[in-house]
Input
Amino acid sequence: MKDLYRLVFDSYVVRRAIVFNYGWAIHVSPEEHLDSICKNGLIANKDAGIPEDLNEIVRQPKVLCMHPLGAKKCPPPACNTIEPRTDIGMVTFAVNSEDIPQRVHLDWSNAWHFQANDIFKNQRLNAEELVRRLLVEYGSFVTYDTISPDKLRVFCEGNQPTNPLDWPALLAAQNISTFVK
Output
């Protein structure tokens, strides 16, 4: 099984599946991080512990979770850097799939036991088909590297939610109060 995991966790295979099948990747972050994101971009943070069966493959515990726009499911935003509250405003960012970093994996922090079961059940598929299936079904991948602010677009009132080309570039956005939260 570990050999199969190595195939579907190959960054080249995962990135290729994202770039060829999705135009955009989405990240949702608390508005409290907006100033930092404008300055430093989206950065990886500590998330769930690495699943035991991936310890030999995944070495980086800090991840930036992304949703390929168009996948069937979209996991809810999660943030481990601030205390949970009901009044947290969220801001949605998009990055063109060609601008996602090179180091990407399936999102092992999101429903890994279900994904591992799907990998086991679909061993007849080649690695790229299997990755594409998991991206569609679970709607999430991770990167370990920063996405710079100049690569980001931000969703604002009046924008079409499924067309990030309609969203302003983060660094050109004029009025943060219009960000949809």
Summary: The chain has five helices and seven strands. Strands lie at 24-30, 45-46, 62-68, 90-96, 104-106, 141-143, 152-154. Residues 2-178 form one domain. The longest strand covers residues 24-30.
